[in-house]
Write a structure and sequence with these properties.
By secondary structure, the protein is α/β, with parallel strands linked by helices. It folds into 2 domains: 3-61, DNA polymerase, domain 1 (Orthogonal Bundle); 66-346, TIM Barrel, CATH 3.20.20.70. It has helices at 10-19, 25-36, 50-59, 119-122, 131-147, 172-184, 201-208, 225-231, 240-254, 272-281, 307-319, and strands at residues 3-4, 60-61, 66-72, 77-83, 90-96, 101-104, 108-110, 125-128, 159-162, 193-197, 215-219, 258-264, 287-293, 324-326. The strands form 3 sheets. Strands 3-4-5-6-9-10-11-12-13-14 form a 10-stranded mixed sheet, with helices on one face. A two-stranded parallel ribbon has the order 1-2. Strands 7-8 form a two-stranded antiparallel ribbon. Helix 10 links the parallel strand 12 and strand 13. Helix 5 crosses helix 6 (172-184). The chain is elongated. The structure holds S-adenosyl-L-homocysteine and iron/sulfur cluster.
Length: 347
């Protein structure tokens, strides 16, 4: 199996050039080719000496995916089903807004956490993605957006959310390498990158110590441990208190306000008393809560809450001085909304 050039930093690419007996600036040329010029293969790097190209070709591939299918939504949203460089199938989403273009990436093929309301979790875990396979999704979604005229030819992805398939903090090295390269090579602002975690506590402490200006979103979904364990069985070893404390630590270390995500499930976690308990749990913390109404997933018995129930839930939080936003529903018609991504095809 060849190694991927995507996922290597400028410095690492310079070392690679030196290893091949080439001048250092050749490394910078490769970075320009793979990160900024959309070059898809070593054989296409015509501005490199033929000798260096054939040296590279023995061990390295660029790391680009193949698009299997593109589905367009009504709301300037699309979803691509991709075969990443090391195989399998993953999904990524592009969303055009007036002032930005956002890409939602997957970090794993499947997910081991198995949340009871999530389509990805239902399929189990297959493998971690490599950093290059994560970066490829942003490049690919950007290219599709240009083709679909959602971005001008010189436009670029301005925001990246790690909210696709998989738990980013359980694929820590690849996620962090991708984050740093998205920032340094693709010029996505650190503050415009969001990692969403299901509350994997050791990962939260670890990422805090990177001292990056990333946005951290923690999926909570409950204000009481018995309900949380039922909804998120794969994280039962961490209590809500432990998770919220890790969120407080993240704020202390980085100064970044943490987002708590809460997927509202009718009759399960949407009562005013749960909202009051949530407000109590988060009291005094510099955070905000993002309410996500359940997106229907085939084979799951949950329902989204009635509008008056979610409005009540929101009001109780606001009365407790917790800032709240409600997630704009995007991509639902093409199963591209939060938690709806899944491996649709098998090899
Ligand atoms: N594994 C990470 C990131 C991927 S999921 C995490 O769980 O945070 C992104 C968000 O979608 C999470 O907040 C997740 O809880 C939520 N989600 C999953 N299934 C959903 C569904 N069917 N409807 C609404 N939100 C869902
Ligand atoms: Fe995994 Fe997140 Fe889905 Fe849970 S919600 S199964 S952690 S992708």
């Amino acid at each position: 199996m060849k190694k991927l050039l995507l996922g290597l930093s400028d410095g690492e690419l310079k070392l690679l050039a030196a290893e091949a007996g080439e001048k250092e600036y050749r490394g910078k040329q490769i970075a320009d080719l793979v990160y900024r010029q959309g070059c898809r293969g070593v054989a296409l790097m015509s501005n490199l000496p033929a000798k260096f190209r054939s040296w590279l070709d023995k061990e390295y591939a660029v790391g680009r995916s193949q698009i299997v299918k593109t589905r367009r939504g009504k709301d300037r949203t699309f979803k691509v089903l991709l075969t990443p460089a090391f195989g399998d199938f993953i999904e990524s989403v592009g969303m055009a807004y007036e002032d930005r273009f956002s890409c939602c990436v997957s970090t794993q093929v499947g997910c081991s956490v198995g949340c009871s309301f999530c389509a990805t979790g239902a399929g189990g875990f297959k493998r971690n993605l490599a950093a290059g396979e994560i970066i490829d999704q942003v490049l690919t979604v950007g290219e599709v957006a240009v083709r679909e005229k959602m971005l001008p030819p010189d436009g670029r992805v301005s925001h990246v959310v790690f909210m696709g398939m998989g738990e980013p903090l359980m694929n820590y090295e690849a996620t962090l390498t991708a984050v740093k390269l998205l920032n340094s090579e693709l010029k996505v602002g650190m503050r415009n990158i969001t990692i969403s975690t299901i509350g994997y506590v050791p990962g939260i402490y670890r990422v805090a110590r990177e001292h990056l200006q990333l946005t951290l979103a923690i999926s909570l979904h409950a204000s009481e441990d018995t309900i949380r364990r039922r909804l998120v069985p794969g994280m039962s070893r961490f209590s809500l208190k432990d998770i919220v404390e890790a969120g407080r630590d993240y704020f202390r270390e980085t100064g970044r306000r943490v987002t708590f995500e809460y997927c509202l499930l009718a009759g399960v976690n949407d009562s005013p008393s749960e909202a009051a308990r949530l407000a109590e749990l988060l009291k005094g913390m510099n955070c905000h809560v993002n309410l996500i109404p359940f997106n229907p997933v085939e084979g799951k018995n949950y329902k989204p809450p009635r509008a008056d129930r979610s409005a009540d839930f929101r009001r109780v939080l606001e009365d407790g001085d917790i800032p709240v936003t409600q997630r704009e529903q995007r991509g639902a018609g093409i199963e591209a909304a939060c938690g709806q991504l899944r491996r649709m095809q098998r090899q």
